[in-house]
Amino acid sequence: MDLFDQHLKKIEETQAPLAARMRPRTLDEFVGQDHIIGLGRLLRRAISLDQLSSVIFCGPPGTGKTTLARVIANTTRAHFIAINAVLSGV
């Protein structure tokens, strides 16, 4: 990352919508979905140990799918590709 990339990232972070800036960035900040990522649950252990394979989240809007995916991307060293079915024409 060079100087220009850092400046662009800083601008994006400060001008992002409030919801994007308030989005949890770690598993400890994530609220809800305890049946999936609660302490001792399989998904949480896999994320903590960085032993997560491919995952597909599905469900109604507003349930935390994108937020959880971003938390996983920030937590693990895995290569992360975000695909939105609506935008990709699937």
Could you characterize what this model shows?
This protein is mostly helical and 90 residues long. The chain has a single domain (24-88), classed as 3-Layer(aba) Sandwich (Rossmann fold), CATH 3.40.50.300. The chain is built from six helices and no strands. The protein has helices spanning 3-15, 18-21, 34-37, 42-48, 65-75, 85-88. It is globular, with a radius of gyration of 15 Å. The mean pLDDT is 84.
Q: What is the overall silhouette?
A: globular
Number of β-strand runs: 0
Biggest beta-sheet profile: none
Total of DSSP H or I helical runs spanning 4+ residues: 6
Percent helix range = 40-55%
* Fraction in beta strands: under 5%
| Second rung of CATH, namely the architecture | 3-Layer(aba) Sandwich
Write the element-wise H/E pattern from the N-terminal end onward. Answer: HHHHHH
CATH H-tier superfamily: P-loop containing nucleotide triphosphate hydrolases
Number of structural units classed as domains: 1
The CATH class turns out to be Alpha Beta
The Cα radius of gyration reads 15 Å
Query: The CATH topology, please?
Result: Rossmann fold
Ends: how far apart? 33 Å
Low-pLDDT segments, ≥5 res: none
Structural class by secondary-structure content: mainly alpha
Question: Overall mean pLDDT score?
Answer: 84
